[in-house]
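Work Package 4 report. The design task specified in the project plan requires that, given a folded chain encoded as structure tokens, an amino acid be chosen for each position. We show below one input record used in the internal validation round.
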């Protein structure tokens, strides 16, 4: 089971609203514009999406440019493109939707549950909240073939879509193997 924390204070510059893809010029950050309704004290559940730009269209065009020549882009394209055509009001709604798309693409069947209050030290779960903050989120992964690896080499710490578009059905085996190596 995946437990998503909704009641912690939203922290900027985390994977909650940004990711990095492998574009034709190397690492390309994609950032979702958000509105913190209570300023720096906004809880994750209350973070709204900003509609000040056409970010969904821009992100999808960037993903198409980056992965159009990847081995499995055409196979997974419709699943991911439909996500970029939907309208979302909150960041947690968007993240839940993309997590479900990713789980489906990976063949993962894990229920997603949300917290109903904040726990500083959760019991009976592996707490990964601090792993998602800034530079702590960077991990080194074993290389796999990427679209632009001949130009820039293997780039680690990218969005899961890089793995899915490049390895396709083998993505789950890759993740199982590295999970065994890490834990």
């Amino acid at each position: 089971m995946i437990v998503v924390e909704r009641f912690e204070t939203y922290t900027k510059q985390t994977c909650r609203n940004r990711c990095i893809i492998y574009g034709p010029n190397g690492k390309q950050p994609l950032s979702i514009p958000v509105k913190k309704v209570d300023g720096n004290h906004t809880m994750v559940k209350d973070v709204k999406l900003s509609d000040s730009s056409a970010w969904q269209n821009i992100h999808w065009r960037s993903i198409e440019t980056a992965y159009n020549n990847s081995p499995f882009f055409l196979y997974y394209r419709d699943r991911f493109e439909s996500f970029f055509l939907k309208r979302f009001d909150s960041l947690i709604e968007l993240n839940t939707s993309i997590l479900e798309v990713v789980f489906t693409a990976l063949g993962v069947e894990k229920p997603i549950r949300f917290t109903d209050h904040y726990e500083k030290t959760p019991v009976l779960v592996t707490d990964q909240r601090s792993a998602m903050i800034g530079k702590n989120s960077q991990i080194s992964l074993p290389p796999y073939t990427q679209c632009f690896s001949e130009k820039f080499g293997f780039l680690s710490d990218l969005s899961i879509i890089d793995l899915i578009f490049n390895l396709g059905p083998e993505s789950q085996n890759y993740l199982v193997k590295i999970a065994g190596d890490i834990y």
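The chain has a mean pLDDT of 87. Validation will be extended to a larger panel in the next phase.
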